[in-house]
């Protein structure tokens, strides 16, 4: 009889442990799968057009830029800081070389630098760099 009671206790404890673990896993999964705020896109219009010197000729670069965030406050900060952001990106884009932008790696590097520049400006305004991505929506070199 004592063995029967011990078996029942062990089975009951095991069932409780499995149930508790199952609930904890479900709660953790719900936290992980919690809906994120929607993506907010802000096109920086008009497209940027800059010239830069490349060896003995003048080259032109036209870049369309859109930024993405999940924070409406960051969108407002970017709108409020539009002249500052545009100035920073014009300076960044005009400092490039044709050779540096001729391959995908150069464009990706420029994209990362542009994202960092925008994040810095937004962080100065809001206290946090809530810009998740920066996309080149057009990229023309001549």
From TrEMBL:
Q: Which PANTHER family match?
A: FLAGELLAR PROTEIN FLIL
Bilayer topology: Single-pass membrane protein
Q: According to the lineage, what is the superkingdom?
A: Bacteria
The name on file for this protein is Flagellar protein FliL
Q: What does this protein do?
A: Controls the rotational direction of flagella during chemotaxis.
Q: Which UniProt keywords apply?
A: Cell inner membrane, Cell membrane, Cell projection, Chemotaxis, Cilium, Flagellar rotation, Flagellum, Membrane, Transmembrane, Transmembrane helix
The record's comment on protein family reads: Belongs to the FliL family.
What does the UniProt entry say about where the protein is found? Answer: Cell inner membrane; Cell membrane
| Source species | Dyella lipolytica
């Amino acid at each position: 009889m004592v063995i029967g009671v011990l078996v029942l206790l062990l089975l009951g404890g095991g069932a409780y442990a499995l149930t508790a673990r199952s609930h904890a896993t479900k709660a953790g999964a719900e936290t992980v799968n919690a809906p994120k705020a929607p993506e907010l896109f802000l096109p920086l219009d008009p497209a940027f057009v800059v010239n830069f010197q490349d060896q003995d000729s003048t080259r032109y670069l036209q870049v369309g830029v859109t930024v993405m965030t999940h924070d409406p406050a960051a969108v407002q900060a970017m709108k409020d800081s539009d002249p500052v952001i545009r100035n920073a990106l014009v300076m960044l884009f005009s400092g490039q070389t044709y050779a540096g932008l001729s391959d995908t790696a150069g464009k990706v590097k420029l994209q990362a630098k542009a994202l960092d520049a925008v994040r810095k400006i937004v962080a100065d305004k809001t206290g946090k760099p809530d810009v998740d991505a920066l996309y080149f929506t057009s990229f023309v070199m001549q």
